[in-house]
Amino acid sequence: MTPRKSHSKLVRLLSLVAVGGLAMAGCGGDGGGGTSSPEGSGASETPQMGGRVTIGMETESTGFQPGKDTVTESGTMVNYAIYDSLLARADDGEVKPFLAESYSTSPDLKEWTVKLRSGIKFHDGTDLTSAVVKENWAVLTEPSARTAGALANVADLVVLDPLSFKYMLKEPNAAFADSLTTVIAMPFSSANYKAKGADAGANPVGTGPFMFSSWTRDSELVVKRNPNYWIQGLPYLDEVAFKPIPDEDARMASLESGSIDMLSSLRQPTVRRANDLAKNDNDFKVYGFIGNNTGANIYNTGKPPFDDRRVRQAAIYSLNQEQIIDVLGGKGLAPPATQLFTKDSPWYSEKVAATYPGKQDVAKAKKLLDEYKADPRRSDGKPVGAPVEFTFSCQPDPSLVELALLEQQMWAAVGFNVSLRQVEQSAHVTNGVGAAPDFKGNYDVNCWRLGGQGDPDSVLFNSFRDPGNGNAANVTDFTTPEIQKLLVEGRSTIDIGERKKIYERIGVILAEEVPFSLSSSTAAVVAAKSDIKGITGWTFPDRSTKGPSVVQGVVTFREVWLAKS
To answer: Cα(394)–Cα(160) distance, rounded to whole angstroms?
Structure first.
C-alpha cells in the first residue's frame, strides 16, 4: 500500500507545482508594492496570551456544517477557526499532513491512506477516530450534500484501524491530496451532528483552535479559545469575533473608528483605501495577496439564451475589459485576466491567452447576436428578430452597482435588452450554486469570482465536471465531452508535462466556449491595527514549516496574538 519512494517524490513534485500563482505581497500605497514585511516587528517578539480581536468580513454565511452549508469566502475564516483539515498546503505549495500524522497513495493513484494523530478530541470531548471520519464521509456524500460532487470519485472510505483509513477511488486522481486540504476533509463531531441535526451548522463542533460560542446572524459570530487544543500553547487569543459588514464604506469606517480591529476585503477600492490608511497612519498595517482568484461574469449555460455559444460570445465581445477593471478599482493592482491562472503560475498558457476574446469587438458582437436572433431554431423559443433579454445580477456594493450599469450600457450598444438585479451576497451565492438535488443555477448572468490556489484539478474538475449528479461546484452548468475526457486524463497521470498540455487544452476550450468572462485577478487585503501580530507566517504542527498567509484575504487565527501595552 505504501508507494514506492520514486512515486512519493513525483507526488510531492505535483504538490509543489500546484502552488500555481501563489504570490504573497504586502499592499503598498500605490496598490502594487509593499509597506510591511511578512510579519513586521512581530516576527521576533514573544507572543502574548489573551485578548479579543474583532474582524469585519464581507458577508455572512448560511451556516458552518461541512457538507450542508454554503460558506462564503470570508466565512472560510470561521471554518479555519473551528475546524482543522486532514492535510494543508505549505507556503512552498507542498501538501503536508496536519490533523493527519501521515498519508500515502498506491502506485495506481486509486487508494489514499491517511493516519490520524492520536489523542485529538473534538470540542465536545469526543475522540477523533477513523470511525468518526467514516461517519462524516456518509454525511458529506449524501445526495443533497454540497460536497457530494467533490467526492463523486470516492467509491468508499474503509476504516483500517482506530486511527487509519483509506479512500478508495473509482478512478485515479493524482491531485486527491490537494482536495484533503478543503472542507471535505475537516472532521466534525458526529455526536454533535446527530444531536443537533439541521441546527448543527449554527452550532458547529470541530477540533480547531477555537470553540463556537455564540452567533447572532448578520451581526456577530464569536469563537473562544479551545483550552484543550492538540497543538500545545495555541491559540493565543481568548476570543475572535467575526462581524459581517457587507457595505465596504461601513467596514472601512468601522476599522478607522475602532469598532473593529481588522478587516478583510477583495474589493479593489477598499484595497486602495486600506493601503492609504496604513501609509498615513502607523496605527494600521496591511497584508496583501494576489493569486488565481479572478473577477468574472458567469453565464448560465443550462438555460436559454446562454445555452447558445453565439450569445455568450456576443456578450463577451460587447465588454471593454479595461473599463471594467477601472470601474472595479483594479487599475494598477492586477493585469487583465485571460484564464484562471496568473502569469506567474506554472499552469499559465500563452495559447489560452491568445484564444480568449478579451478585446472588445462591437461589430463581431452584433454579428453573433444577429445570427442568433435570425435563427428560427433559437433556443429561447422567441420569433425571428425578437430581442435577446436577460438579467444581470450583482451584490449591492457601490463598485458592483457601477459595474452593472456600465456592462448594461455595453450590452445595450450591441442590441441586448438587460435588466439589473441587486442580490445580497448569501442569496447571490445560493442562486449561483442552485439547490439540491440537481444544483441548477437560478440566474442568467451573475458577477462572480472564479479560480483559486492549488492544483488545477482542484480548480477545474468540479467546476466543469458533468453538471448532473448533484454537482454544486459547476455554477455555469457547462461542460463538453472533450473536457470530461481531459479532466479524467489530468488526474490520471503524474507527468507534469502531460498535465500542463491537458489543462492548456481545457483552457483553450473554455476560451472558445466562454461560459464565463474575466476582468482581472483579485487583489485581496487584510488591514489591521498594528498591535495585532501573527497575521502572516502561521506554522504546521512541527512549528517550523510555514503555511501560506492571507490567501484571498482569509486569516488563519490559530497563531494571531495581541500585543498588550
So the answer is: 48
Strand, coil or helix: what is 130? helix
Residues composing the chain? 565
pTM comes to 0.76
Closest CA to 338 of 323, 329, 324, 348: 348
Structural class in CATH, domain 291-522: alpha beta
Which residues make Cβ contacts (< 8 Å) with residue 280, sequence separation at least 6? none
Q: Which three cell numbers stand for residue 482?
A: 472533450
Cell of 324: 471594467
Task: Please report which confidence band the pLDDT of residue 467 belongs to, taking 50, 70 and 90 as the band edges.
Answer: confident
Q: Label each residue of 217-244 as H, E or C.
A: CCCEEEEEECCCCCCCCCCCCCEEEEEE
Q: Are 174 and 45 in contact (CB under 8 A)?
A: no
List residues bridging with 114 in a β-sheet. Answer: 103, 165
Which one-letter amino acid corresponds to residue 293?
A: N
CA distance linking residue 511 with residue 340, whole number of Å: 10
* Residue range 393-423, pLDDT digits in tens: 999 988 899 999 999 999 999 999 999 999 9
Q: Are 205 and 124 in contact (CB under 8 A)?
A: yes
Best CA proximity match to 431, nearest among 386, 495, 476, 466: 476
Long-range contact pairs involving 117-122 (C-beta distance under 8 Å, separation at least 24): 117/163, 117/230, 117/541, 118/163, 119/230, 120/207, 120/230, 121/207, 121/228, 121/230, 122/187, 122/188, 122/189, 122/191, 122/192, 122/205, 122/206, 122/207
